[in-house]
Amino acid sequence: MSDRGFLTYREPDSSSTSAPIPRLTTKVVQLLVLISFFVLLNVGEWLASKAFRAGLIGQIVVGLVYGRPLANILDIAWQHTFIALGYLGLVLIIVEGSLAVRLDLLKANFVLSVFAACIGILAPIGLSFLALYLGFGYGAVETFICGAALSSTSIGTTFVVLGQASSAVAFADTKVGSVLISAAVFDDVAGLAMASVIEQLSDDAGRLGWLIGRPILASVLMAALTPLLTKFAFAPLFRHLEPPRGHWANMSLMVGVLCAFLAIAAYAGTSLLFGAFLAGTFLAYLENEPGRFMKTYAKYVLDVQQYLMQPIFFASIGFAIPFKSLWSGRAVWRGVVYALLMVIGKVLVGTVIPLWDVLRHKGTLRERTSGTLWPSVLLGGAMVARGEIGLLIIQIGFNKTAYLSQDALITAIWAILLNTVIGPVAVGFLVKYKAQEIGTSQWGIQKHGSGEQSEVSVNASNVEAGNG
Fold it and tell me: Where are the domains positioned within the chain?
């Protein structure tokens, strides 16, 4: 089938691939365009942070304007380059967040996180069939593709919003933050597994079982084997050998571990982002001193991530939005209706918090649900943003299969865009006014097993880069 994507890659002419690229002077117009692009990315982030408490919205808008959807100011080759760099930025965002994750909280809240993730996957798909299949008359497979795209959660956006929204509370040390991060990772893994299935829908049906089972099996095995091997093999060996200390030794180990996990995830058939998350948790478990790798990350990587790679990542989301096709009356009302249903589908994830307290504690209903309102709203609201994963899945369905129509594509993109805006804005304002209340509730800051307070925040900028 022909490629109908918004940014389609063209292979270079094979006859010229062996020739060296001539060294030419960059034209002044191209140089000025690049300078203005990077300046406006940071200006847009600052303005959106002031207006909406979500700076990533400004960066997406800049990408929309400079990319092919609107003005197409950047060369297509540059846009492809920034998409690749943006994905690397997303990997770095996830590594930063996973380095700060409390492993004891991940373990303690694993069952609850799985329950939350299941709601976050099944509710959007179910509501999609209600709206698109029964309401708008789309096909069943077409509806499933849209539901799969909207069942994802942008884990990169989740980390960024929580990191930027409040410096008063270290959300990595909260119970609700632990559940949120785990559920977002599970939803991303499930979404990318469904993406691999969607990509192969036109293949032989006899392989469908393996296509579905492979990414799920690979993810389960990696999730199970990584902590076991780390605890009983790598961590004892690491502490016995006492490798060289210092930032350069730490950086070498971090790069090696990240590349290894990315390669394993890719060849096993699961998500690269899941591999990046496991790499960060692996390094966090190896630490024989608190914050060892986070201090190195903050000193050598964090500034590049925050001021270069992260803005490029959110701008690359803007490159993939078919903005001009969104503005017919039919597309707008269908997109808005579907978007609101998809907000509800993810907000429902927050109901696991009061339900969990009702099932596990004794007393009156009011006593058991006391203090759960704002943690529930935070969990549900932070799961709303779809971002890059949703756009990836819907474009795979449109470009690689014959099932998804242009009408359904536009409806789904409306929902993805509105959710990616609504989620961060809502969480930004919630955390601004309710961070302390959430942090002091039973779903807030948790002590370590030893009774010591965690020293590592999800926002690595709180780490003193000069220490260690």
Answer: 28-445
